[in-house]
Automatic annotation (TrEMBL):
Catalytic residue list: 300 (proton acceptor)
Domain Homogentisate 1,2-dioxygenase C-terminal: 289-444
First-level EC class: oxidoreductase
Enzyme Commission number: 1.13.11.5
GO terms for MF: homogentisate 1,2-dioxygenase activity; metal ion binding
Organism: Rhizodiscina lignyota
Domain Homogentisate 1,2-dioxygenase N-terminal: 13-287
Name the record gives this protein: homogentisate 1,2-dioxygenase
């Protein structure tokens, strides 16, 4: 800290800053000066506008990028359905992919690596809510792949923005706007519609994806924290222009559209953008640079202080999606139960573990590459082992989470679970409750010197001294 010591060194250059207006050219002079769409763009390129928001969105929300490319993105044959019977990642596309809203706390064992599939075919929808057709809600995926995408292939999702959280392996992502190397303890966001290709320079990959069907991710407001801390804007990295000049070979363009897979053929590389300028682009972030804040007196603050990125609903302060992390940090609070408290939440919480051990789940069931889901108002909190340790710990200043990184996808929506997530993956821990919370024991002790009386239903009622206690129980009450 304050940056991750990656085993695999960086190989690309980047532009720094979150939601900044960037411009970059792979060949000097490729960007037009002053105009976006001149009659004849420099170098014989085509000008193409990529809009991530409506033209009329407020200026502070508007996201667009101008691309200067060898051939426009529209130069392809019509799309045709591909594997429509087996490839389905739409949570509301019944009966092909049923989804179940259930109140049970759920936890999954580590998901398997799959060396037989590439990036596109590794996507498994675990849970979600809403509909990409209506541009509302989210989808939560596990990916596990062992093969590079074809050299002449590109993929994009028309359904939403991909927030990618690698857990194992390295993703080398070629996009229309340039290249990203994404390693465990980094995240990247590939906005809706941006074409990309994923290769695996270090072998099989595995991780998590939050697809945002509505709006885009932003940095959370800091309020009384001030102008810095949490994820600082300067630490986000966007690619520089890099292009492939090939108009002699056939390429396949794959599209995830309404949860289904389509393909089209074209006779030129999709990665032919020589220059671009704008604020709609893929980006990545090193979680090791997160500047954690917390209590230096007493009590455990809400986990919202660990929010990296957010996507707000129409009601300010209520998120369609928050991306929250639990990084290594110091705990110094006095006379305080330091792990997260037991709670029930109007938000849904899907958690994953990149590496290490999460400090609220020390019993061993929550493992790297595994996950948990605590849905709307499903009670949860530290397991019995963690509660016992934390209740009796010596409250010295303590560094927790060393070598660990847990995260949470949080949403105000009631998140449903797919058949793959509930049964076909064969990773659900049936003994989650029995291991975590059923072993909890009562520690309640009546104050000495207080009488009690059994009511008609056999429940012991405290008889309080009405001279000293404002609310007291009448001795004649027996129900």
């Amino acid at each position: 800290m304050p940056s991750t010591d990656f085993k695999v060194p960086e190989k690309y250059r980047y532009q720094n800053g979150f939601n900044c207006y960037h411009e970059t050219e792979a060949i000097q002079g490729a960007l037009p000066i002053g105009a976006n769409s001149p009659q004849k763009p420099p170098l014989g390129l085509y000008a193409e506008k990529l809009s991530g928001t409506a033209f009329t969105a407020p200026r502070h929300e508007n996201q667009q990028t101008w691309l200067y490319r060898i051939l426009p993105a529209s130069a392809h044959a019509p799309f045709a359905t591909k594997e429509s019977a087996t490839y389905n990642t739409n949570p509301e596309s019944k009966p092909f992919e049923k989804i179940y809203q259930i109140p049970n706390q759920l936890r999954w064992d580590p998901f398997d690596l799959d060396e037989t599939v590439d990036w596109v075919h590794s996507l498994h929808l675990v849970a979600g809510a809403g509909s990409p057709v209506m541009k509302s809600g989210i989808g939560i995926y596990i990916f596990a792949a062992g093969k590079d995408m074809s050299e002449r292939e590109a993929f994009y999702s028309a359904d939403g923005d991909f927030l990618i959280v690698p857990q194992h392996g390295v993703l080398d992502i070629q996009t229309e706007l340039g290249n990203l190397l994404v390693r465990p303890n980094e995240i990247c966001v590939i906005p809706r519609g941006i074409r990309h290709r994923v290769t695996l320079p270090e072998g099989p990959i595995r991780g998590y994806i939050l697809e945002l069907y509505q709006n885009h991710f932003t940095l959370p407001e800091l309020g009384p924290i001030g102008s810095n801390c949490l994820a600082n804007a300067r630490d986000f990295q966007a690619p520089v222009a890099s292009f492939v000049e090939d108009t002699a070979n056939s390429y396949t363009l794959l599209s995830k559209f309404a949860g289904h897979l389509f393909e089209a053929k074209q006779n030129h590389s999709p990665f032919d953008v020589v220059a671009w300028h704008g604020n709609y682009y893929p980006y990545k972030y090193d979680l090791g640079r997160f500047n954690t804040v917390g209590s230096v007196s007493y009590d455990h603050p809400d986990p919202s202080i660990y929010t990296v990125l957010t996507a707000q609903s129409d009601h300010v302060g209520t998120a369609i999606a928050d991306f929250v992390i639990f990084p290594p940090r110091w705990l110094v609070a006095e006379d305080t139960f330091r792990p997260p408290w037991y709670h029930r939440n109007t938000m849904s919480e899907f958690m994953g573990l990149i590496h290490g051990q999460y400090d609220a789940k020390t019993g061993g069931g929550f493992q790297p590459a595994g996950a948990s889901l605590h849905n709307v108002m499903s009670a949860h909190g530290p397991d019995a082992t963690t509660h016992e340790k934390a209740s009796n710990a010596d409250l010295k200043p303590q560094k927790v989470g060393e070598g660990s990184m847990a995260f949470m996808f949080e949403s105000c929506l009631m998140v449903g679970v797919t058949e793959w997530g509930l049964s076909r993956c064969k990773k659900v821990q049936e003994d989650y409750n029995a291991e975590s919370w059923e072993p909890l024991k009562p520690h309640f002790k009546r104050p000495e010197g207080k009488e009690s009386k059994s009511g008609a239903n056999g429940v012991q009622r405290m008889i309080q001294d009405k001279a000293t206690v404002p609310q007291w129980t009448s001795e004649t009450t027996d129900a």
